[in-house]
Amino acid sequence: MTTDTPPPLPARRGLSTGKKTLLGLLIVAVLGVFGAVGYIYYLDSKIEKIPDEALPSLEEDIEQGFRNILIVGSDSREDLPEGFENFGSFGGERTDVIMVAHIAPDVGGQLLSLPRDLKVAIPGEGTNRINAAFVFGGPDLLVQTVQNNFGIPIHHYVEIDFGGFARVVDALGGVTKTFDHPARDAKSGLDVDAGTITMDGETALSYARSRNYQELIDGSWKSVNGSDIGRTHRQQELLLLMFDQATSPSSAFNLPGFAATFAEQITADAGFTPGVILDLGRSALGLDRGQIYTMTLPVTGSTEGGTAYVIPIEPDATSVLDAFIAGTVFPEL
């Protein structure tokens, strides 16, 4: 069993054919005004790029026909907007979120979360939690660690920090979610009432970071999926809600501004070129939420030498990794 089993993600409601057609026409019209190709190069110019020599471990061959993108959310506080009072003042930078994503031709979008306390062998550094790889050797050592431990070839690297995530949410006009109960986390600063709420960037970040998540149920505050595994579920849920918002017809005319904000807030490998951006954008536009599948590597808690880790549950973890690497449907666990 995992240390914390999150509830299933909310039912995926795909866009109807008519809505997808309308969205496509709106986006084509908007990009036509801006000049599609020129705008892609404009977006590319806003992305901070990591030189090839700093990321030599990225794979160049795309054997399965899809690109695996390592997505990292760092806990850097350096770029936090003014007024964010619940995120501490820790120096340095660590990986708060580690995910691998791709769009597989026969399945759709797949997103695999790797818990940050996952026990791994870090090249040249021995055994440690996976988030230590970034501290020891930055993006390239993290890429090596994922590839060596899980056999997932990594073709691209994309990183965003706390402040960047909040700004992207705000550029979307917020993210709407229905809370069945009032929810809070004193450490992350989350404090919301029950009902349908449009979360701004600060609230969404508090929700994504929550490791002490509580709900007011029958008059008392109860811990609900408060561990790191529960948090990966909330992070995945937020990404799906953001996808819903970004691909809704009502957001089509905000697309240029949102895309520019997103580009300004990320750091990516030098190979994340305008051609790659255009290819990924076209593929994503062809998806609806019902074609995006999320999974967290199945793990359980373990303490070794006084250090708390999570370790893979077998054979479930291998089944999940095999499906992701091949681009086939995730197993039902």
Describe it for me?
By secondary structure, the chain is α+β, with helices and mostly antiparallel strands. It has one domain: Nucleotidyltransferase, domain 5, CATH 3.30.420. 36% of the residues lie in helices and 25% in strands. The strands form 5 sheets. It has a 7-stranded mixed β-sheet with strand order 1-14-7-2-3-4-15, with helices on both faces. β9 (183-185) and β10 (190-192) form a beta hairpin. α2 runs parallel beside α7 (255-265) and α5 (201-209) runs antiparallel to α6. The longest helix is centred in the middle third of the chain and has 19 residues, at 132-150. Mean pLDDT is 84; it is low at 5-15 and 17-35.
Features:
Nucleotidyltransferase, domain 5; 25% strand; four-stranded antiparallel β-sheet; 36% helix; alpha+beta; 333 residues; seven-stranded mixed β-sheet
